[in-house]
Amino acid sequence: MGQYIDGIRGPITVHDPAAPYKADDEMTITLSDWYHDQAPDLLNYFLSAANENDHKGAEPIPKSALMQDTQNAKFNVAPNKTYLLRIVNMGVFAGQYFSIDGHQMTVVEIDGVYVEPQKTDQIYLTVAQRCSVLISTKSDASKNFAISAAMDTDMFDSVPPGLDPNVYGFLVYDTKKSLPKPAPITTFAPLDEMTIVPKDHMALLGKVDHQIVMTMDFFDDGGINRATVNNVTYIGQKVPPLYTALTTGSSATNPAVYGVNSNAFVLKPNEVVEIVVNNHDTGNHPWHLHGHNFQIVARSAAKAGDYPGAAATADAASSPVRRDTVTVNTGGWAVLRFKADNPGVWLFHCHIEWHVEAGLSATIVESPTSLQGSLNVPWDHLKSCKDQGVQTRGNAAGNTKDFLDLRGAITTNPKHNWGALVNPPSSRTKARSIGRGFVA
Ligand SMILES: [Cu+2]
Protein backbone atom coordinates (compact mmCIF):
# COMPACT_ATOMS: atom_id res chain seq x y z
CA MET A 1 0.00 0.00 0.00
CA GLY A 2 0.94 3.61 -0.06
CA GLN A 3 1.76 3.84 -3.77
CA TYR A 4 -0.70 6.62 -4.44
CA ILE A 5 1.12 8.84 -1.96
CA ASP A 6 4.06 8.75 -4.37
CA GLY A 7 1.98 9.55 -7.42
CA ILE A 8 0.40 6.36 -8.76
CA ARG A 9 -2.95 8.04 -9.18
CA GLY A 10 -4.79 10.18 -11.67
CA PRO A 11 -8.29 11.10 -12.81
CA ILE A 12 -10.38 8.81 -14.98
CA THR A 13 -13.39 10.48 -16.57
CA VAL A 14 -16.48 8.51 -17.51
CA HIS A 15 -18.36 10.59 -20.08
CA ASP A 16 -22.14 10.43 -19.98
CA PRO A 17 -23.73 11.31 -23.33
CA ALA A 18 -27.00 11.95 -21.48
CA ALA A 19 -25.58 14.28 -18.82
CA PRO A 20 -28.27 16.70 -17.58
CA TYR A 21 -26.30 19.89 -18.28
CA LYS A 22 -24.79 21.59 -21.29
CA ALA A 23 -21.27 22.93 -21.60
CA ASP A 24 -19.20 24.16 -24.53
CA ASP A 25 -16.10 22.45 -23.23
CA GLU A 26 -14.78 20.73 -20.15
CA MET A 27 -11.62 20.47 -18.09
CA THR A 28 -10.49 18.27 -15.24
CA ILE A 29 -8.73 19.95 -12.33
CA THR A 30 -6.89 17.81 -9.80
CA LEU A 31 -5.98 18.91 -6.30
CA SER A 32 -3.51 17.03 -4.16
CA ASP A 33 -0.99 17.27 -1.37
CA TRP A 34 2.66 16.48 -1.88
CA TYR A 35 5.57 15.24 0.21
CA HIS A 36 9.26 15.65 -0.38
CA ASP A 37 10.01 12.15 0.90
CA GLN A 38 8.78 8.88 -0.49
CA ALA A 39 5.94 6.93 1.08
CA PRO A 40 7.81 3.88 2.44
CA ASP A 41 10.03 6.11 4.55
CA LEU A 42 7.17 8.33 5.72
CA LEU A 43 4.98 5.32 6.45
CA ASN A 44 7.64 3.51 8.38
CA TYR A 45 8.24 6.50 10.59
CA PHE A 46 4.52 7.26 10.98
CA LEU A 47 3.91 3.76 12.36
CA SER A 48 6.93 3.75 14.65
CA ALA A 49 7.36 4.02 18.39
CA ALA A 50 9.62 7.01 17.81
CA ASN A 51 6.74 8.90 16.20
CA GLU A 52 4.36 7.87 18.97
CA ASN A 53 6.88 9.02 21.59
CA ASP A 54 8.06 12.21 19.97
CA HIS A 55 5.03 13.40 18.00
CA LYS A 56 2.06 11.57 19.58
CA GLY A 57 1.68 9.49 16.42
CA ALA A 58 1.15 12.52 14.17
CA GLU A 59 0.63 11.98 10.45
CA PRO A 60 3.28 13.26 8.05
CA ILE A 61 2.37 16.80 7.03
CA PRO A 62 2.45 17.57 3.30
CA LYS A 63 5.10 19.96 2.05
CA SER A 64 2.96 21.52 -0.68
CA ALA A 65 -0.45 21.69 -2.22
CA LEU A 66 -0.69 20.92 -5.91
CA MET A 67 -3.17 21.75 -8.65
CA GLN A 68 -2.89 19.66 -11.82
CA ASP A 69 0.14 18.00 -10.17
CA THR A 70 1.97 21.32 -10.29
CA GLN A 71 1.64 24.92 -9.16
CA ASN A 72 0.53 27.90 -11.27
CA ALA A 73 -1.13 25.68 -13.88
CA LYS A 74 -2.78 27.55 -16.73
CA PHE A 75 -6.26 26.72 -18.03
CA ASN A 76 -7.03 28.41 -21.34
CA VAL A 77 -10.59 29.63 -21.81
CA ALA A 78 -12.50 31.68 -24.37
CA PRO A 79 -15.06 34.40 -23.60
CA ASN A 80 -18.82 33.79 -23.58
CA LYS A 81 -18.59 30.07 -23.05
CA THR A 82 -19.82 27.61 -20.46
CA TYR A 83 -17.19 25.23 -19.10
CA LEU A 84 -17.67 22.12 -17.06
CA LEU A 85 -14.87 21.74 -14.52
CA ARG A 86 -14.45 18.28 -13.05
CA ILE A 87 -12.60 18.85 -9.80
CA VAL A 88 -11.11 15.97 -7.84
CA ASN A 89 -9.10 15.88 -4.63
CA MET A 90 -6.76 12.97 -5.33
CA GLY A 91 -4.53 13.82 -2.37
CA VAL A 92 -3.44 11.69 0.54
CA PHE A 93 -4.44 13.61 3.61
CA ALA A 94 -5.59 17.23 3.32
CA GLY A 95 -9.07 18.41 2.41
CA GLN A 96 -8.93 21.46 0.16
CA TYR A 97 -10.94 24.64 -0.33
CA PHE A 98 -11.34 25.78 -3.94
CA SER A 99 -12.52 28.98 -5.58
CA ILE A 100 -12.11 30.94 -8.81
CA ASP A 101 -11.62 34.67 -8.71
CA GLY A 102 -14.51 36.54 -10.35
CA HIS A 103 -16.40 33.40 -11.38
CA GLN A 104 -19.29 31.88 -9.51
CA MET A 105 -19.53 28.10 -9.77
CA THR A 106 -22.70 26.08 -10.28
CA VAL A 107 -22.37 22.62 -8.74
CA VAL A 108 -24.01 19.96 -10.94
CA GLU A 109 -22.47 16.68 -9.76
CA ILE A 110 -20.78 15.24 -6.68
CA ASP A 111 -19.06 11.84 -6.46
CA GLY A 112 -20.80 10.71 -9.67
CA VAL A 113 -24.30 11.77 -8.56
CA TYR A 114 -26.05 14.51 -10.58
CA VAL A 115 -27.47 17.20 -8.36
CA GLU A 116 -29.89 20.10 -8.65
CA PRO A 117 -27.72 23.03 -9.78
CA GLN A 118 -26.52 25.11 -6.88
CA LYS A 119 -24.44 28.28 -7.07
CA THR A 120 -21.47 28.85 -4.80
CA ASP A 121 -18.23 30.81 -4.60
CA GLN A 122 -16.32 28.08 -2.79
CA ILE A 123 -16.29 24.32 -2.49
CA TYR A 124 -14.49 21.97 -0.11
CA LEU A 125 -13.29 18.54 -1.15
CA THR A 126 -11.89 15.93 1.21
CA VAL A 127 -9.45 13.50 -0.32
CA ALA A 128 -11.42 11.17 -2.62
CA GLN A 129 -14.29 13.61 -3.15
CA ARG A 130 -15.18 14.85 -6.63
CA CYS A 131 -17.34 17.72 -7.79
CA SER A 132 -18.33 19.06 -11.20
CA VAL A 133 -19.18 22.73 -11.60
CA LEU A 134 -20.25 24.91 -14.49
CA ILE A 135 -18.70 28.32 -14.97
CA SER A 136 -19.64 31.02 -17.48
CA THR A 137 -16.72 32.93 -18.85
CA LYS A 138 -16.67 36.71 -19.13
CA SER A 139 -17.86 38.50 -22.25
CA ASP A 140 -14.38 39.77 -23.09
CA ALA A 141 -10.77 38.65 -22.76
CA SER A 142 -9.48 41.81 -21.12
CA LYS A 143 -7.92 40.05 -18.15
CA ASN A 144 -6.94 36.70 -16.66
CA PHE A 145 -8.13 35.31 -13.32
CA ALA A 146 -6.60 33.33 -10.45
CA ILE A 147 -7.84 29.94 -9.28
CA SER A 148 -7.09 29.32 -5.60
CA ALA A 149 -7.02 26.21 -3.46
CA ALA A 150 -5.91 25.79 0.13
CA MET A 151 -5.17 22.74 2.23
CA ASP A 152 -7.30 22.42 5.37
CA THR A 153 -4.55 22.84 7.95
CA ASP A 154 -7.01 22.09 10.78
CA MET A 155 -6.40 18.45 9.86
CA PHE A 156 -2.71 18.67 10.73
CA ASP A 157 -1.54 17.99 14.28
CA SER A 158 0.76 20.98 13.87
CA VAL A 159 1.51 23.47 11.13
CA PRO A 160 5.24 23.63 10.47
CA PRO A 161 6.63 27.15 10.17
CA GLY A 162 6.94 28.13 6.55
CA LEU A 163 4.31 25.69 5.25
CA ASP A 164 2.34 27.32 2.44
CA PRO A 165 -1.02 25.53 2.32
CA ASN A 166 -2.08 27.41 -0.82
CA VAL A 167 -1.83 26.53 -4.48
CA TYR A 168 -2.87 28.57 -7.46
CA GLY A 169 -3.77 28.19 -11.08
CA PHE A 170 -5.01 30.60 -13.72
CA LEU A 171 -7.99 30.95 -16.01
CA VAL A 172 -6.22 32.37 -19.02
CA TYR A 173 -8.40 34.36 -21.43
CA ASP A 174 -5.46 35.94 -23.24
CA THR A 175 -2.00 34.42 -23.17
CA LYS A 176 -0.47 37.78 -24.08
CA LYS A 177 -1.86 39.45 -21.00
CA SER A 178 -0.19 39.24 -17.60
CA LEU A 179 -1.33 36.85 -14.89
CA PRO A 180 -2.93 38.35 -11.78
CA LYS A 181 -1.19 38.16 -8.43
CA PRO A 182 -3.23 35.49 -6.66
CA ALA A 183 -4.47 35.98 -3.12
CA PRO A 184 -4.73 33.10 -0.64
CA ILE A 185 -8.16 31.99 0.48
CA THR A 186 -8.74 33.63 3.85
CA THR A 187 -12.50 33.16 4.27
CA PHE A 188 -13.47 29.54 4.59
CA ALA A 189 -17.17 29.30 3.74
CA PRO A 190 -17.69 26.43 1.31
CA LEU A 191 -21.02 25.16 0.05
CA ASP A 192 -22.67 23.03 2.75
CA GLU A 193 -23.04 19.61 1.13
CA MET A 194 -26.06 18.84 3.33
CA THR A 195 -28.04 21.41 1.29
CA ILE A 196 -27.38 19.56 -1.97
CA VAL A 197 -30.33 17.72 -3.53
CA PRO A 198 -29.75 14.83 -5.94
CA LYS A 199 -31.14 15.46 -9.42
CA ASP A 200 -33.20 12.25 -9.25
CA HIS A 201 -34.76 13.31 -5.92
CA MET A 202 -34.34 9.79 -4.60
CA ALA A 203 -36.40 9.61 -1.43
CA LEU A 204 -34.90 9.13 2.01
CA LEU A 205 -34.52 5.40 2.65
CA GLY A 206 -36.92 5.33 5.55
CA LYS A 207 -37.24 1.83 6.91
CA VAL A 208 -33.87 0.51 8.04
CA ASP A 209 -33.45 -3.27 7.91
CA HIS A 210 -29.89 -3.45 9.20
CA GLN A 211 -28.10 -0.92 11.36
CA ILE A 212 -24.33 -1.11 11.75
CA VAL A 213 -22.68 1.09 14.36
CA MET A 214 -18.98 1.71 13.85
CA THR A 215 -17.03 3.55 16.50
CA MET A 216 -13.63 4.70 15.29
CA ASP A 217 -10.66 5.58 17.43
CA PHE A 218 -6.89 5.46 17.70
CA PHE A 219 -4.89 3.74 20.41
CA ASP A 220 -1.33 3.10 21.51
CA ASP A 221 -0.61 -0.41 20.25
CA GLY A 222 2.54 -1.38 22.12
CA GLY A 223 4.06 2.00 21.37
CA ILE A 224 2.60 2.43 17.87
CA ASN A 225 -0.36 4.61 16.94
CA ARG A 226 -3.03 2.45 15.32
CA ALA A 227 -6.65 2.94 14.37
CA THR A 228 -9.67 0.86 15.28
CA VAL A 229 -13.27 0.29 14.25
CA ASN A 230 -15.19 -1.09 17.23
CA ASN A 231 -11.83 -1.71 18.93
CA VAL A 232 -10.48 -3.81 16.06
CA THR A 233 -7.58 -2.78 13.82
CA TYR A 234 -7.98 -3.80 10.19
CA ILE A 235 -5.25 -6.22 9.14
CA GLY A 236 -5.03 -7.99 5.77
CA GLN A 237 -5.59 -11.75 5.92
CA LYS A 238 -3.96 -14.80 4.32
CA VAL A 239 -7.02 -15.07 2.08
CA PRO A 240 -8.47 -11.75 0.85
CA PRO A 241 -12.15 -11.42 1.87
CA LEU A 242 -13.40 -11.53 -1.74
CA TYR A 243 -11.93 -15.01 -2.17
CA THR A 244 -13.26 -16.11 1.20
CA ALA A 245 -16.72 -14.91 0.13
CA LEU A 246 -16.47 -16.92 -3.10
CA THR A 247 -15.11 -20.16 -1.64
CA THR A 248 -16.80 -20.77 1.70
CA GLY A 249 -20.29 -21.70 0.49
CA SER A 250 -23.13 -20.94 2.86
CA SER A 251 -20.59 -20.07 5.60
CA ALA A 252 -19.79 -16.90 3.63
CA THR A 253 -22.71 -15.21 5.39
CA ASN A 254 -20.96 -15.68 8.74
CA PRO A 255 -18.68 -12.68 9.42
CA ALA A 256 -16.35 -14.92 11.44
CA VAL A 257 -14.93 -16.63 8.33
CA TYR A 258 -13.30 -13.36 7.22
CA GLY A 259 -11.20 -13.19 10.38
CA VAL A 260 -11.67 -10.81 13.29
CA ASN A 261 -9.26 -8.23 11.86
CA SER A 262 -11.13 -7.90 8.56
CA ASN A 263 -13.82 -6.04 10.50
CA ALA A 264 -16.39 -7.80 8.31
CA PHE A 265 -20.08 -6.93 8.21
CA VAL A 266 -22.31 -9.14 6.06
CA LEU A 267 -25.34 -7.68 4.26
CA LYS A 268 -28.39 -9.50 2.93
CA PRO A 269 -29.60 -8.82 -0.62
CA ASN A 270 -31.61 -5.61 -1.00
CA GLU A 271 -31.81 -4.73 2.66
CA VAL A 272 -31.73 -1.07 3.62
CA VAL A 273 -28.50 -0.55 5.52
CA GLU A 274 -27.75 2.24 7.95
CA ILE A 275 -24.15 2.83 8.94
CA VAL A 276 -23.61 5.02 11.99
CA VAL A 277 -20.04 6.25 12.39
CA ASN A 278 -19.05 7.60 15.79
CA ASN A 279 -15.75 9.45 15.70
CA HIS A 280 -13.86 9.20 18.98
CA ASP A 281 -10.75 10.82 17.52
CA THR A 282 -9.71 14.45 17.72
CA GLY A 283 -9.79 15.05 13.98
CA ASN A 284 -12.16 14.92 11.01
CA HIS A 285 -12.12 11.76 8.92
CA PRO A 286 -13.36 11.36 5.31
CA TRP A 287 -15.12 7.97 5.24
CA HIS A 288 -15.39 6.38 1.82
CA LEU A 289 -17.51 3.42 0.71
CA HIS A 290 -16.78 1.31 -2.34
CA GLY A 291 -19.65 0.00 -4.46
CA HIS A 292 -22.35 2.45 -3.36
CA ASN A 293 -23.38 6.04 -2.98
CA PHE A 294 -24.95 6.53 0.43
CA GLN A 295 -27.46 9.06 1.63
CA ILE A 296 -26.07 11.34 4.32
CA VAL A 297 -29.13 11.19 6.54
CA ALA A 298 -27.72 13.29 9.35
CA ARG A 299 -24.39 14.45 10.65
CA SER A 300 -23.45 16.10 13.91
CA ALA A 301 -21.25 19.08 14.51
CA ALA A 302 -17.84 18.49 16.06
CA LYS A 303 -17.68 17.24 19.65
CA ALA A 304 -21.35 16.24 19.74
CA GLY A 305 -20.58 12.86 21.31
CA ASP A 306 -21.99 9.57 20.04
CA TYR A 307 -25.07 9.26 17.84
CA PRO A 308 -27.96 9.65 20.26
CA GLY A 309 -30.48 7.58 18.28
CA ALA A 310 -33.24 7.91 15.72
CA ALA A 311 -34.62 11.18 17.11
CA ALA A 312 -31.48 12.87 15.79
CA THR A 313 -32.48 11.99 12.22
CA ALA A 314 -36.02 13.38 12.54
CA ASP A 315 -35.29 16.41 10.38
CA ALA A 316 -33.46 14.48 7.64
CA ALA A 317 -34.03 15.83 4.14
CA SER A 318 -36.74 14.11 2.09
CA SER A 319 -34.12 13.64 -0.68
CA PRO A 320 -30.81 13.60 1.18
CA VAL A 321 -27.50 14.35 -0.47
CA ARG A 322 -25.97 11.17 -1.86
CA ARG A 323 -22.26 10.60 -2.38
CA ASP A 324 -19.52 8.10 -1.56
CA THR A 325 -17.22 10.06 0.75
CA VAL A 326 -18.30 11.93 3.86
CA THR A 327 -16.50 13.88 6.55
CA VAL A 328 -17.28 12.64 10.03
CA ASN A 329 -16.52 15.54 12.32
CA THR A 330 -14.13 15.29 15.23
CA GLY A 331 -15.86 13.84 18.27
CA GLY A 332 -19.12 13.62 16.32
CA TRP A 333 -21.14 11.21 14.22
CA ALA A 334 -22.74 10.62 10.83
CA VAL A 335 -25.67 8.44 9.73
CA LEU A 336 -25.50 6.96 6.23
CA ARG A 337 -28.00 4.80 4.36
CA PHE A 338 -27.97 2.74 1.20
CA LYS A 339 -29.74 -0.22 -0.31
CA ALA A 340 -27.71 -3.42 -0.60
CA ASP A 341 -28.35 -3.84 -4.32
CA ASN A 342 -24.78 -4.35 -5.52
CA PRO A 343 -23.33 -7.70 -4.42
CA GLY A 344 -19.62 -7.51 -3.72
CA VAL A 345 -16.93 -7.14 -1.10
CA TRP A 346 -16.56 -3.44 -0.43
CA LEU A 347 -14.12 -1.60 1.76
CA PHE A 348 -15.49 1.14 4.00
CA HIS A 349 -12.53 3.18 5.16
CA CYS A 350 -11.17 6.55 6.10
CA HIS A 351 -9.62 7.83 2.87
CA ILE A 352 -6.64 9.44 4.59
CA GLU A 353 -4.02 7.00 3.35
CA TRP A 354 -2.03 7.19 6.60
CA HIS A 355 -5.14 6.06 8.46
CA VAL A 356 -5.75 3.17 6.08
CA GLU A 357 -2.23 2.03 6.88
CA ALA A 358 -2.99 2.41 10.58
CA GLY A 359 -5.97 0.06 10.17
CA LEU A 360 -8.97 2.40 9.87
CA SER A 361 -11.04 0.14 7.61
CA ALA A 362 -13.97 -2.22 7.66
CA THR A 363 -15.12 -4.81 5.11
CA ILE A 364 -18.69 -4.80 3.85
CA VAL A 365 -19.52 -8.25 2.49
CA GLU A 366 -22.70 -7.80 0.48
CA SER A 367 -24.82 -10.77 -0.59
CA PRO A 368 -21.89 -13.22 -0.75
CA THR A 369 -23.97 -16.21 -1.81
CA SER A 370 -25.40 -14.37 -4.84
CA LEU A 371 -21.84 -13.30 -5.62
CA GLN A 372 -20.78 -16.96 -5.66
CA GLY A 373 -23.16 -17.64 -8.53
CA SER A 374 -22.41 -14.55 -10.57
CA LEU A 375 -18.79 -13.47 -10.26
CA ASN A 376 -16.05 -14.96 -12.38
CA VAL A 377 -12.64 -13.88 -11.17
CA PRO A 378 -10.38 -12.92 -14.10
CA TRP A 379 -7.43 -15.27 -14.52
CA ASP A 380 -4.92 -12.47 -14.08
CA HIS A 381 -6.31 -11.67 -10.62
CA LEU A 382 -5.73 -15.25 -9.57
CA LYS A 383 -2.28 -15.24 -11.15
CA SER A 384 -1.37 -12.03 -9.37
CA CYS A 385 -2.23 -13.65 -6.03
CA LYS A 386 -0.40 -16.84 -6.94
CA ASP A 387 2.74 -14.94 -7.89
CA GLN A 388 2.72 -13.26 -4.48
CA GLY A 389 1.96 -16.46 -2.60
CA VAL A 390 -1.49 -15.20 -1.58
CA GLN A 391 -4.04 -17.97 -1.10
CA THR A 392 -7.37 -17.66 -2.90
CA ARG A 393 -9.47 -20.35 -1.22
CA GLY A 394 -10.92 -20.86 2.23
CA ASN A 395 -11.46 -18.73 5.29
CA ALA A 396 -9.20 -15.86 6.38
CA ALA A 397 -6.68 -18.38 7.69
CA GLY A 398 -6.70 -20.38 4.46
CA ASN A 399 -8.63 -23.29 6.00
CA THR A 400 -10.61 -24.92 3.18
CA LYS A 401 -12.24 -27.65 5.29
CA ASP A 402 -13.43 -26.13 8.55
CA PHE A 403 -14.43 -22.57 7.74
CA LEU A 404 -14.96 -21.72 11.40
CA ASP A 405 -11.48 -22.80 12.39
CA LEU A 406 -9.67 -19.47 12.25
CA ARG A 407 -6.42 -20.65 13.77
CA GLY A 408 -3.68 -19.01 11.74
CA ALA A 409 -5.72 -15.94 10.81
CA ILE A 410 -3.61 -12.80 11.03
CA THR A 411 -4.24 -10.84 14.20
CA THR A 412 -1.04 -8.87 14.63
CA ASN A 413 0.56 -6.20 12.48
CA PRO A 414 3.95 -6.67 10.87
CA LYS A 415 6.56 -5.04 13.06
CA HIS A 416 7.67 -2.61 10.38
CA ASN A 417 5.45 -1.22 7.66
CA TRP A 418 7.29 -0.30 4.47
CA GLY A 419 4.17 -0.03 2.34
CA ALA A 420 4.58 -1.37 -1.17
CA LEU A 421 8.36 -1.83 -1.08
CA VAL A 422 9.18 -5.21 -2.60
CA ASN A 423 12.57 -5.40 -0.89
CA PRO A 424 12.24 -3.55 2.41
CA PRO A 425 15.31 -2.69 4.47
CA SER A 426 16.16 -5.34 7.06
CA SER A 427 15.95 -2.83 9.89
CA ARG A 428 14.55 0.62 10.32
CA THR A 429 16.94 3.46 9.90
CA LYS A 430 16.13 6.89 11.19
CA ALA A 431 13.56 8.40 8.86
CA ARG A 432 15.20 10.96 6.62
CA SER A 433 12.07 13.02 7.00
CA ILE A 434 12.77 13.91 10.60
CA GLY A 435 15.84 15.88 9.66
CA ARG A 436 13.76 17.71 7.08
CA GLY A 437 11.18 18.65 9.66
CA PHE A 438 8.14 16.91 8.22
CA VAL A 439 6.56 17.25 11.60
CA ALA A 440 6.86 20.56 13.42
CU1 LIG B 1 -8.89 9.21 9.04
TrEMBL record:
Q: Which GO terms describe its molecular function?
A: copper ion binding; ferroxidase activity
Q: Which InterPro entries match?
A: Cu-oxidase_2nd, Cu-oxidase_C, Cu-oxidase_fam, Cu_oxidase_CS, Cu_oxidase_Cu_BS, Cupredoxin, CuRO_2_Fet3-like
* Pfam families in the cross-refs: Cu-oxidase, Cu-oxidase_2
Q: Which UniProt keywords apply?
A: Metal-binding, Oxidoreductase, Signal
- The reply to whether Oxidoreductase figures as a keyword in the UniProt entry is yes
Gene Ontology cellular-component terms for this entry are: high-affinity iron permease complex
Question: Sorted alphabetically, which PROSITE patterns does this protein's record hold?
Answer: MULTICOPPER_OXIDASE1 (PS00079), MULTICOPPER_OXIDASE2 (PS00080)
| Secretion signal, residue range per the UniProt entry | none
Plastocyanin-like domain: residues covered: 26-174, 237-369
Q: Provide the residue span(s) of the region labelled Disordered.
A: 416-440
Which CDD domains does the UniProt record give?
CuRO_2_Fet3p_like, CuRO_3_Fet3p
Q: Name one GO biological process term.
A: cellular response to iron ion starvation
| Record protein name field | Uncharacterized protein
